[in-house]
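Hi there. Long-time user, first ticket. I'm pasting a complex I've been working with (about 856 residues overall). I'd like to know whether the download I got is complete or cut off, because the file seemed smaller than I expected. Thanks.
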Amino acid sequence: MNSIERVEADTVDLMRGLGRSATLAAKRLARATREEKDTALLGAAASLRAQTDAIVEANAIDVAAAEAAGRPASFIDRLTLTPERVEAMAVGLEAISELDDPIGGLMAEWRRPNKLKIERVRTPLGVIGVIYESRPNVTADAGALCLKAGNASILRGGSESYHSARAIHGCLCEGLRAAELPEAAIQLVPTTDREAVGEMLRGLDGAIDVIVPRGGKSLVGRVQDEARVPVFAHLEGICHVYLDRGADLEEAVPIIVNSKLRRTGICGSAETLLVDAEAPAGHLEAAVAALLEGGCEVRGDEAAMAVDPRVKPASGVDWGTEYLDAIISVKIVDGVDEAIEHIAEHGSSHTDCILTECYGTAAHFVARVDSAIVLHNASTQFADGGEFGMGAEIGIATGKMHARGPVGVEQLTSFKYIVRGAGQIRPN
Amino acid sequence: MNSIERVEADTVDLMRGLGRSATLAAKRLARATREEKDTALLGAAASLRAQTDAIVEANAIDVAAAEAAGRPASFIDRLTLTPERVEAMAVGLEAISELDDPIGGLMAEWRRPNKLKIERVRTPLGVIGVIYESRPNVTADAGALCLKAGNASILRGGSESYHSARAIHGCLCEGLRAAELPEAAIQLVPTTDREAVGEMLRGLDGAIDVIVPRGGKSLVGRVQDEARVPVFAHLEGICHVYLDRGADLEEAVPIIVNSKLRRTGICGSAETLLVDAEAPAGHLEAAVAALLEGGCEVRGDEAAMAVDPRVKPASGVDWGTEYLDAIISVKIVDGVDEAIEHIAEHGSSHTDCILTECYGTAAHFVARVDSAIVLHNASTQFADGGEFGMGAEIGIATGKMHARGPVGVEQLTSFKYIVRGAGQIRPN
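Hi, the file is complete. Here it is re-exported in full:
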C-alpha cells in the first residue's frame, strides 16, 4: 500500500518514519544501476500517460478549492493540469532518464610521487527534502532528478496541490515498483499539516542531508529561521536588468521585454529595470513604452513616472519584491556602480543582467555582481538548467555553498576520494 | 589599532561589529589581486620571524596556565610554541603564497547552440568563521588559507591559547597592512567569552557564510545543535582499518602501525582496527603484537583479549571514541560486510581503510563505505591535503556538502556563471 494513506498518524512520528524509510531507501539507491533508475523513470512516465484522466480529475479537486478560496489567476494557472501538461511531465521524466548517470563518475584522478593513486568519485548526497509550492509538476520533476542522482527524496508540495501531487506520486511509485527499487525512494509527505515542514527543517533525526526549498517569501523566512540542515537556498529570483549608457537600444529593448514578459511566473523573470541616468535621451522612454505596450504594469521612481502617465509610483517594498506577474519596477541609477550597489542591497543573488556595448563596463559589472548568474546582453529568462545545457534542474540555487545556479543531476551529488595503495605508509 | 583591544565590549555587540567589519573586508578581498594577497602572506611570515621571541613569550603564559590547570601532556604539546614551530608557521604561510590564486579561475566554459557563451568562474565564499581548539598555529594557517581564497575570516581559537593566538594574529595584521588590505580581513575574536562562539554559530546577523569547526566532541555537539549557517563539518576522525582475510600480512602490519602511531593526535590517525574472523591464523596476533610493541594501548573485544593478556577490554564507548592518543580498539568482524556496517554505525565519515590483496573485496569496500576518504592498502595517515597534492588545508571535511575531504584553498571558494550574449532573447 502507498504510504499516503497514513494521514491519521501523529505528524512527528509520521515524519520520522518517512525519514527512516528514506535512509534505508537511500542505501539501496546508492548502489542502483543506471538501468534500474531509468527503468523506474520510464515506468513512471508510462504510468503518468496511462493515468492522465485520473490525474486531471484529482487536479480538478485542487483547482476547484483554489478557485473557491479566491486564489489569483496566476496561482490557478500554475496549479492547473491538462492532458498536455501531464504529457509534458512524462516527457520530462524521459529526458531525465536520458541524462548520464552521475554516480560513480570519475571527477578527477591523479597519482602522487609515492605512487598512491587518488580518485575523486561522485556519490549521492543521500536523502533530499524538497519543499515546494502548489505546482503539481514539481512532484514529478524533483522526485525524478533526486532518483537519477541516486538520492531518496521526501517531497512536501503546497497543500493546495495535495490531490494532484498524490496522483502523480502514485505514478512515480509504479515506476519504482517496475524497477524493483524501494518505493520509499520517492516519498510524498502524506499530510498537509504545516508541522510536517517544521519536522523536515529539523532534519527528521538526522535523516535529511539537504533541503531544497522552492517558494516565495513566507517559505524563505521559515526556512531561514528554522532549518537545522543544509539548504540549497533556492529562494527567490529578484532579477535585475541594468540598461547602461553604452547599451544598443535596438538590442536592449527586446531583451528587457523578454526578461520580464516571456514568462512572468518563473524565478528568472526580471523584477526591476535599472536605467543609467546618463543613458542617451529616449532610452528610458523606449524601454518603458515597450513594457507598457507588452501589457506590463510599470512602477517607477520619480524620473520613470515622468516618462508616461501610466507609470505608477514605486514604494520601497517594490525594490525587494518578486512579483511573479506582469509588473516591473523601474529606477534611474547613477551609472554602473549604483546599479551594482542596488543589486547588492535588493537582489537575491539569483540572476542579473547588464545591457551595454561597452565591454569594460560589462567586465566591471560581471566581476562585482555576486549573483549565481550574471548575464551580459542576453535575457534573464535564460536562467534555466536546460538553457545552460545542463539538463533538467530542481531549481536555481542562490546560496554560495555546494550548488549554485541551476541545480541539475550533477549538482545533487557529493563525492568521495578513493585512494589506491600498495602498502604505502607515511614517513614522519 | 588592533581590534583585540576591545575586550570590554558587550559580547553580542562586539561580535556583530566583527561581522560587519568582515563583510566590508570581504568585498575588498573579493577584488584583491594575487600580488596583494601574497604580499600580505609574505609580510605576515616575515613578521612571525621577527616576532618569534614575543610569540614564544606570549605562549609561555598560555602553557603555564594550562600546566597549572593540570592539562594532559598531549594538550600541552599541541599548545606549546618553540622558535622552530614559529618558523614552521612562517614557512606554511610562504607555501600558501605559492599556491595558485583560485579566484577568477575558469572552471568550465561552453557555448550554446544560440551562441550564448557560459563561463563558470571561481569566486570567494565571503566570510568564514573558524572555531578551533587551543592549537595556536591554526590561527596562522586558517587565516592565511581564507585570505588566499579571497575570504575574510573570523577566528575563534581555544581560550587556553588566547595569548599565543593574539601574538600570531598581530603578525597577520602586519602583513595585511603591508599589502594595504583591510586588517578586518583576518579578525581574531577578542574575548574568551564562550557566548562569542554562540554568536558565530548564529551567523552574526547574516555576516558569516560558512563555519569551519575544528575540534572534539563537545564542540561537535555544540555546532550541530546551534549552527544556523552552513558548516564544513570537520568534526572528528574516527578512522578504521579493516584487515581482510585476503590481506598480505607483511604489507598490512606496517600500515596498521603507521595508521595508528605515526602521529596519534591528528584526525587521520586510526582509532579502531577491524579484523576479519576468517583472516588466517596469526594475523590478529601479529597486528596486536605490533601495536603493543609500538607502545600502543590495545582495547579489544573478547577474541582480541584472548590474544595477549595486555589487551584491555573495550567498552561500547570505545567504538565511537577519537582517542587522539596511543590507544586503539580492536574488534573481530564477520567479513567485509560487517566491517562496512561497523564503520557506518560508529565511524565519522572521515577516513577508512581496507587491507586486502583481493581486489573484488576492495572494490566492494570502497564503493560502500561512504567516507570522505576510503583507502586501499595504504595508511590512514595520508588523510592530509598536502599528501593529496592539494596544498595546505584547513581540515578534512566529513560532511557531504560543498567541500568533502581535504579543505584547501580551492574548497574555500564558490563560483558563479557568467553568460555572455549578443542580444539573445528566449523564444517560448
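A couple of notes from our side: Chain A is about 40% helix and 20% strand. Confidence is low (pLDDT under 50) at residues 1-8 of chain A.
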